[in-house]
């Protein structure tokens, strides 16, 4: 039974090396003197056979990998190209304060030009100076560097003196796992559970911040799972086993094993891969179905990033931290056809995911996924036909690995036209009125999508643009639950079910209750930057005696938010409001100010104690809506340095409400360039249906024109006619 | 300029006759000795040319009209066939208490068999006795009659002694309009406004109930609009002009004209018909796009009403009052494939639409559309390709006109498979964990849809069934606003904008603020009828000192509702719960009870004073959720006799909360056959984009399995493969 420990360790190390060379693109980029034309094809050529046995990529379509080495920027907001990244790296590598050892690059991306430069820029103009914003760690210090690519100079180098560390790199994660796997106590714990070290897969929950105990050093947690017999190791936790690793010192600073007696769940039927399914589901099969556009899609993507469709135009890119970013969204005026500004920039600024278990092995699970791991860096290639429909356009991400070199994350955004069989408006007229009318118009929209796989969880972000001017922003959750091992096989074995941190979702597995909060940064610029936030409150009025047979009615009362305090909103069903961002100086012909309103859909609020460390750090979820004056340094609701931060650089801190003992900023927001922040929340009490992989759950909000157009902008839209629709036949294989 | 009044009146009467013979099918059915094979084709042959100039039906496809004369019932819940309706009429016409004059038939539809009979029935069994439930008005009395079609006997005849009258008939509406149009004072009012009587189109807002003033007689309001130059007469109100008509006495009992000085709006650019558009909208055209299924849809409709698709099976029908009705919804068990009951019956029981203006001409506008007008009776044929996608199946409604004769409302329900490019689950695995996985599954669902045009407003009802067991119920609003004339052309002319009952949405037009509340009757039968309602409250817990670095966490606490009081729910963002209907005796292998939860989406609550007459009658909107024990007489949240009712037979009355001076029923609901009621609300503050026709606005809720399945029921679902998808080419015309 027993293999000598040394042999086993050698095997593990081999495995680790194999894993990392086969996998994360950034980890195995050679030092190019002549960079390859396509990273994907390079990977494909050299590694595919070695890696094949390790996983399975659903092959339902092939994209042509694009060559990005010749990319040049066309727009002030275009992400850094591969050549620009190499250039920035070269500049950094000769910058004296960083010598002699090259720092770990935690972020290297476009330093967006000042807004006024971007707004002034017109197609054909020379680009504003191209700059890289670099976050680097050197000797335990976080540097924020500004690199001017034109002059070749580092123009700014600031060291972070606040709390927190930069976003983790893949190297941090792999170091942490290697350190943990090499820890001598681990072997005893795995043997105790009957698991072989070689069957371990370990993950790296962020440590959070919980007081002075772990301050002053970069700490991460490592927890392990058995992957024996299943790639869905998430369902096979080695419960109770947590290693706290000092990433920089490369040592386990705390080893906890409280899991005695909790078996590793068997993992039966947890493999969700198609190739592992032995029989079809017990339901009638569904015939092939597809959104078809034989004349092709109606949108164009110009210069790599400018999407134009129907009456919309916007800049689209993938950012390593934010994921999908929509910029300069403009919609054509329905009267003149002239593009009008709606939103300068929209993206998910932070994701807060607190788990509801105070246990030693669980309390720290209060992820801030964007700032800790990155929503772009964890977005992998979308699966054609299954993540996105036929006729989708796929966009790559150009990201930077910890050694400062660029890599291509292929096909992480898709753009497609959606037609779901719905109507954008309709009316039929009962002939009793003298008009026998039946009119309806199909609803076709444009979707830009990205899916981030932050470890176990998948977040699908959809930005959907409608011809009536509405932007529908949806987040869909799928992937795997974060589960907790339990000695119990059935619910009635659990002595006090209410004491468990969630329901039993499979034998020996508790689905721990948790929340998800996605905070969007919505820099609305309605027509221009001079905007105002108006709450339109619906208030019950009582009639006067004798005035009317009615006793009550509602009245819409407009309240202009003068300062940030006026715009901190907790949604209340029984105190309803509309929330408008208007341009007070742009009036319709009737005199109504042009505006957009944010329309919440289903939502959930954080109920944690405001002084609880995770909530302190994520105090930006204390309201569903905030409005701040535009400040280019206020992009990240959870702070620029989120990892292990105390919450001293967050939306809630910038916009601090006045208390007796602290200075209140409560900045003016009327007639200003303002940013709207909206938090979309989910409570998740798991159930058996979430095992072993969760059916998608969605929620959304809308940005909707209010007196922005003079009238319904799609009044003149044409219906669909049979004669125009595609002629289709079954596939040859059917 | 002036035509002699008599000549004009003759013309008007001719017009009225023309309108009614051309239009409402029920009004011009001849007395058949040999009924026609198809009402639609009959209408088409005899009237189409006469009617052509009166309106325009968007011709984007043709359905084959179905012959319903040979229809026979196959299922206990199948609606009455045409022959059964004729038979019921014959039985009624010889029933002595109704002699000699045949009553006005306000409703004649299947009296659904007792639930136990339906549940016991199996395919192949003889049907339980077929009965008609008839609501008829005779000499001012409302009769509820039960007609046994087998024995040919009227087995029950009850007279309504409570408040309220039956649903209006088309005859009531046309009588009211004729009476109003013939009223001598009308001419003066129209001339004053520069409008010709021949250009009037009048509508019949229900009168509501506002105390003893209008009690004891059937009263309706009539208001008129100018249709000159536009079929969108709704945008041309003769503001301030209201006639109160006694429907049975055929007289105007009150004539109000308070509209002096309010011009009739010009109606410029209000014609929304495609043929009236002179130019395309100012946007890039959208290429043809379609949901294609060259092997056809995957669902079947058996015996006219049983829909089977993937793992779902349900009975589908159109009801004259409720509109679309889903019965006996069953989903296959994912382990055994055996169908399991989810919902016995689901439909929209009432729609409450209060307008927010206490003015003499507006206070009464507090519609209860289902009980006053009927959601089925106002559902007209859906427009192929524009209301529903290609490959839709269309279902007709067989309804009964006021003379007791059947008529066909063709194609008022469509059924189709939806694929919108989304995924039903997905996960990709960062290769750092040793597995390079990208798996996703397309989401295909089945939609059953109906669109009711209750005068100006259109309500689209979607029941969407997903393979993961989820039912998504959506209501989408479109059509025309109910607008109020104003002397003002621009907002700055309005002396006190806040005093107006809504924003200016076009010259001389106020979009009056209003609400919509759609109350669903959801008779959940999870596995069988023995069900329990459980609130799973998420409650903040504090940790003990030293217990954990965390201060707080959430705990899911299950609370079983013993009685109706426990299940009256007002949704609160900061007091969140899940709402489960479970079968306590059906346990998963882990011991969790099988259940479904109702998942609210965006919602709005009624804020009217509880003593305000409209709110008294619609007190069922005082909570978003109610649970009642099943009672076959409790189908209509607004009461069986809604019209002019006082609210004495509503959900709120049946389930009355205990007060000192009134008997509380507060019935037991634990381990019972229970019905869940959910109200979906919208606040609507209009804006210019809603003019002249509103872009669709949607909201929804979900019924979602919770430990109903042993695990994710679509784990084994296949992905889409390119080789299976249709091969399409552009249409010849493109």
Automatic annotation (TrEMBL), chains A, B:
Subunit structure comment from the entry: Homodimer.
Top EC group = oxidoreductase
All copies of the Copper amine oxidase N2-terminal domain together span: 75-157
- Does the keyword Metal-binding feature in the UniProt annotation? yes
Where in this chain does the record put each Copper amine oxidase N3-terminal domain?
166-264
What GO molecular function terms would the record report? Answer: copper ion binding; primary methylamine oxidase activity; quinone binding
Task: Summarize what the UniProt record says about post-translational modification.
Answer: Topaquinone (TPQ) is generated by copper-dependent autoxidation of a specific tyrosyl residue.
Reaction equation(s) it catalyzes? a primary methyl amine + O2 + H2O = an aldehyde + H2O2 + NH4(+)
Q: Which residues form the Copper amine oxidase catalytic domain?
A: 290-714
Instruction: Provide the cofactor list for this protein.
Output: Cu cation
Taxonomic source organism: Populus deltoides
Q: How is the cofactor bound?
A: Contains 1 topaquinone per subunit.
What family is this protein classified in? Belongs to the copper/topaquinone oxidase family.
Q: What is this protein called?
A: Amine oxidase
What Pfam family is a match for this entry? Answer: Cu_amine_oxid
Could you list the residue ranges forming a coiled coil in this record?
A: none
Catalytic residues (UniProt): 369, 457
Q: Which residues carry this modification: 2',4',5'-topaquinone?
A: 457
EC annotation from Swiss-Prot or TrEMBL: 1.4.3.-
């Amino acid at each position: 039974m027993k293999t000598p420990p040394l042999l086993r360790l050698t095997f593990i190390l081999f495995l680790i090396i194999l894993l990392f060379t086969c996998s994360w693109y950034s980890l195995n980029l050679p030092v190019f003197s002549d960079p390859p034309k396509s990273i994907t094809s390079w990977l494909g050529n050299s590694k595919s056979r070695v890696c094949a046995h390790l996983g399975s990529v659903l092959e339902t379509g092939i994209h042509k990998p694009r060559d990005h080495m010749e990319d040049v920027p066309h727009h002030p907001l275009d992400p850094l190209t591969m050549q620009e990244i190499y250039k920035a790296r070269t500049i950094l590598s000769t910058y004296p304060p960083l010598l002699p050892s090259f720092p770990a690059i935690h972020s290297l991306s476009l330093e967006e030009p000042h807004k006024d430069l971007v707004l002034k820029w017109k197609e054909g103009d020379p680009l504003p100076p191209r700059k890289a914003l670099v976050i680097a760690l050197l000797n335990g210090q976080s540097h924020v560097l500004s690199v001017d690519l034109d002059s070749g100079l580092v123009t700014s180098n600031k060291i972070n003196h606040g709390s927190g560390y930069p976003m983790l790199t893949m190297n941090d994660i792999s170091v942490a796992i290697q350190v943990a796997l090499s820890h001598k106590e681990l072997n005893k714990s795995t043997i105790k559970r009957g698991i072989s070290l070689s069957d371990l897969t370990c993950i790296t929950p962020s440590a959070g911040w919980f007081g002075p105990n772990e301050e002053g050093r970069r700490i991460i947690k490592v927890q392990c799972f058995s992957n024996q017999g299943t790639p869905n190791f998430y369902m096979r936790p080695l419960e109770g086993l947590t290693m706290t690793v000092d990433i920089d010192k490369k040592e386990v600073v705390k080893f906890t094993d409280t899991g005695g007696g909790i078996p590793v769940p068997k993992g039966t039927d947890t493999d969700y891969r198609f190739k592992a399914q032995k029989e079809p589901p017990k339901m009638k099969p569904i015939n092939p179905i597809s959104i078809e556009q034989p004349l092709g899609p109606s949108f164009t993507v110009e210069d790599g990033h400018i999407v134009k469709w129907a009456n919309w135009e916007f800049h689209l890119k993938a950012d390593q931290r934010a994921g999908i970013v929509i910029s300069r969204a403009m919609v054509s005026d329905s009267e003149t056809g002239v593009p009008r500004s709606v939103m300068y920039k929209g993206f998910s600024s932070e994701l807060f995911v607190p788990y509801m278990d105070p246990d030693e092995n669980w309390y720290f699970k209060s992820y801030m996924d964007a700032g800790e791991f990155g929503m772009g860096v964890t977005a992998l290639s979308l699966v054609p036909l299954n993540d996105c429909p036929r006729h989708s356009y796929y966009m790559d991400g150009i990201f930077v690995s910890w050694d400062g070199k660029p890599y291509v994350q292929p096909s992480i955004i898709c753009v497609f036209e959606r037609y779901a069989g719905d109507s954008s408006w309709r009316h039929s007229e009962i002939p009793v009125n003298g008009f026998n009318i039946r009119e309806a118009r199909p609803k076709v929209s444009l979707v830009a999508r990205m899916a981030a796989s932050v470890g176990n969880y998948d977040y699908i972000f959809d930005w959907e643009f409608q011809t009536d001017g509405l932007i529908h922003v949806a987040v869909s959750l799928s992937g795997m639950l974060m589960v907790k091992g339990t000695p119990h096989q059935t619910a009635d074995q659990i002595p006090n079910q209410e004491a468990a941190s969630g329901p039993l979702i499979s034998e020996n597995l508790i689905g721990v209750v948790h929340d998800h909060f996605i905070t969007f940064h919505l820099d609305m610029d309605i027509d221009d930057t001079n905007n105002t936030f108006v709450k339109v409150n619906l208030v019950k009025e009582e009639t006067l005696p004798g005035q009317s047979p009615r006793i009550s009615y509602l009245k819409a009362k407009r309240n202009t938010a003068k300062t940030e305090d006026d715009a901190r909103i907790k949604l209340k069903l029984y105190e309803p409001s509309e929330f408008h961002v208007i341009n007070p100086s742009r009036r319709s012909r009737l005199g109504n100010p042009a505006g957009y309103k944010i329309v919440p859909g289903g939502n959930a609020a954080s109920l944690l104690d405001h002084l609880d460390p995770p909530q302190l750090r994520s105090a930006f979820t204390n309201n569903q809506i905030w409005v701040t004056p535009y400040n280019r340094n206020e992009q990240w609701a959870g702070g620029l340095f989120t990892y292990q931060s105390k919450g001293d650089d967050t939306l809630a801190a910038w916009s601090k409400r006045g208390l007796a003992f602290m200075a209140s900023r409560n900045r003016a927001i009327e007639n200003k360039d303002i940013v709207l922040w909206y938090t979309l929340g989910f409570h998740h009490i798991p159930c058996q249906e979430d095992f072993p992989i969760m059916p998608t759950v969605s929620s959304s909000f809308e940005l909707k024109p209010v007196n922005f157009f003079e009238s319904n902008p799609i009044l003149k839209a044409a219906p669909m006619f049979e004669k125009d629709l595609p002629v289709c036949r079954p596939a040859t294989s059917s």
